[in-house]
Structures are given as C-alpha cells and as structure tokens.
Design goal:
387 residues; alpha/beta; 9-stranded mixed sheet; 6-stranded mixed sheet; elongated
Length: 387
C-alpha cells in the first residue's frame, strides 16, 4: 500500500471558500512528506488522495499525517479496479496473517452510478472476510475495520481509520506571534492556535547573561516539536535581562512584573508588525499567577494595540498539563531552567495594578529606548521539518 486517503470535516463546511482551504491542506500534506517521495496529490469528493513512488513504512505515514492540521482522519489504502470481485480478491489477499476477533466493513460510495449500494457492498465483502477469518461481525465496536471507498474513477480499500489532528490547515487564519517561554502553558496555547489555522512566529525573552541558557535550549526543543505542524518556524530570542535591570533600578517592587509584561508585549508587537502578523498569543490562564489576575491582565494588555489571543484563559492547570502531554511538550517544559520570569521578581507582586500608577512608573525609564534595545539585540533562528 503506497497511498493515503485523507478525509476532512471542518473544511467541508466552508462552501464557497472550500477550494482555498483544500489547496492549503494539500500544500501542507506535501510539506509533511517532502522527504518521502510523494508522487501525486489530488482532490476527490470530500477527500484528498496522496500517493508515493515507493512503499513507505506505515508507522512513518501515520506519524506524518497525524501532525497535519485540517485532517479529520485518514487511511493507508490500496487502489483497485471498480469491481466488487477485484475488491474482494485484494482485500482477502491483504488480510493474510492478520488476526482479529471482530470486524466490520465500512463503505463510502462517492459514485452513485456504481451498481451496488453501500449496504450491499458491505454484505458481500463482509461475508467473504467472515469466511476467511472466522471473526464475527460487530457493527458497533469492532476490533478491526475494513474501509472501502468507491469514487468516480477509482476504488480504494484500507484497514482502520486513523484519527487526524483536526482543525484547519495552518496558514488559513493568518500570521500571529507567540510569546513562548520554556514553561508548560505557552506551547499549548501555540498549538491550539496552530490548530485554528494560524501560522506562528515565536518570540522568547531570556535573561542571559544574568542567567544561563537553559530556557533558550528548551525553547529550541519545543520548536522542534511544534514545527512538525507548520513545517517552517522563525524564532526571535530577545535579551530581556538588561531591560529588567533598568526597570528594577527605576521603580518600586510591587509593579515590576506588570511592567515587565507590558514591555514584552510592546517588543513582541513590534516584531509582529515586522512579520505582518495580526495578533499576539500568550499562555495566560485567568488567576493562575499574579500577572494573570483580571485587574493585571486589563492593565498589561493596554500596552499593545494588536489583539491578544489567550486560548488557555478558561482552562485549569491540570487541563493544560493533560494537553501538553498529548502534544508532546510536557517533558521538555518540565526540565528545570532559569527564565526571565525568575529574575528580579518581587516577593509580593501586585495583583490589582492600577493603570494610573503603572503609567506614572513608566515615566521613570525610557520605554522607546528599551523597545529599541530589545529589537536591535534580538537573534533570529529558523526551524524546518522535515529537516
């Protein structure tokens, strides 16, 4: 089997824009397998067919297809003649050595001119599989599923449908900038916005040389995971320690965290405008830490004009941890590090900042100069998948 039949769901609801979404999905599918010798990709009714010049290990295909947003589910399939006898023969031959206790046949007849309807195809193929395998038919909870697709010019069969990543193809919802730390929350927030079709540029604030480089190394590892979903990522590494030092030298302790966050937003917004991005992403969850109280969020967000997307705002910590485990970022995020959030942090930060007080404190240092310092000293790195 050297073909994959990809099915989508949310894209099918786009009506007049469906072709645009489908073409971006096809582009992303090809990007995901660019090193595997793809031969052809073409649109079918509510599906995309991807074929390869040579056989590709199923585990590799499952891993690659499972990371592409916009895919509802997919099957590794074989093409046959549009003939029930040919389908029966190839399915039985392909089952050699496969053991299962229960099964079902699941047919989608995309071409209504085919002489047999879906229930009749299921009955004929099911009888043959039952006779060969000795397994029982179970339509509700089978151990094994044979999928059959009858299309205008082709017929395909495969074994089991594999769940995809869902959502919308990356690139359909525009560019955004993610403020990514080495922690648990921001990678999950980024993943969720990628799943909604956003192409993400990353900004990481670090405090070298006042602290070590562990947070930067963690972020590089996190990007290696997240880039599997958008295939090309750019990271801006912004030195923030000197900015923090100047703020500390100018203002009293309680408001420092709020002032740090406002400076981060300003610098990230400047990078977003350079990258033609239309919004910022943060990993904020309401009430989780001092800077994420409603009062502080309201004051902090006034530093930026671009929309700030907070996909985790209503999630509790355990929900975020569970998703981090599912997407493969939790273990990396759990590595101990020294990030800028731990540098020059007051013991008792303000939880109910007042804008008038914050505004007054910001007159004590040169905001524009610090933004310029962050931008001028930011390092850029690019990440690719597959390498």
């Amino acid at each position: 089997m050297n073909s994959v039949l990809i099915r989508y769901h949310e894209i099918a609801l786009k009506k007049g824009n469906r072709a645009y979404f489908t073409e971006l999905l096809k582009r992303n599918l090809l990007a995901a397998v660019k090193d595997l010798g793809a031969k052809e990709i073409r649109s079918l009714p509510a599906r995309v067919l991807l074929t390869f010049r040579n056989d590709v290990p199923p585990a590799t295909l499952i891993e690659r297809m499972g990371s592409v947003f916009g895919v509802a589910n997919f099957s590794i399939v074989e093409r046959t003649a549009r003939d029930i006898d040919a389908l029966r023969a190839r399915i039985l031959e392909s089952l050699n050595g496969t053991h299962f206790e229960s099964f079902r046949i699941e047919t989608q007849r995309g071409d209504k001119t085919f002489p047999l309807n879906s229930p009749e195809i299921n009955r004929q193929l099911g009888a043959a599989v039952k006779e060969k395998s000795g397994a029982r038919v179970d339509l509700m909870n089978p151990q094994f599923t044979v999928t059959v697709e009858i299309l205008p010019h082709d017929a395909f069969f495969g074994f089991n449908k594999i769940a995809g990543a869902g959502g919308l193809p990356v690139g359909t919802s525009g560019r955004v900038v993610s403020l990514i730390s080495g922690g648990i929350d921001s990678p999950v927030a980024t993943y969720r916005m990628m799943q909604r079709g956003c192409r993400v540029i990353f900004v990481h604030f670090h405090s070298a040389p006042y602290q070590d480089n562990t947070s930067q190394e963690k972020v590089r590892q996190l990007l290696a995971v997240l880039t599997r979903h958008q295939f090309l990522s750019r990271l801006y590494l912004v030195p923030f320690g000197e900015i923090q030092r100047q703020i500390v030298a100018s203002v009293a302790r309680p408001l420092r965290v709020v002032l740090y966050r406002r400076m981060m937003l300003r610098i990230a917004e400047a990078i977003a405008r350079k990258e033609k991005a239309k919004a910022l992403i943060t990993g904020e969850s309401l009430g989780q830490v001092a800077s994420q109280t409603l009062d502080n969020i309201a004051v902090i967000q006034q530093a930026a004009r671009l929309p700030i997307l907070r996909p985790l705002v209503g999630m509790d910590k355990q929900e975020i941890i569970d998703q981090a485990r599912r997407i493969g970022t939790f273990d990396i995020s759990s590595i101990p590090d020294q990030d800028c959030c731990q540098l020059f942090v007051p013991k008792h930060p303000a939880t109910k900042a007042r804008f008038s007080e914050v505004e007054q404190d910001e007159t004590k240092f040169d905001v524009k100069e610090l933004i310029g310092y962050g931008l001028d000293n930011a390092a850029e790195e690019e990440f690719n998948f597959p390498v």
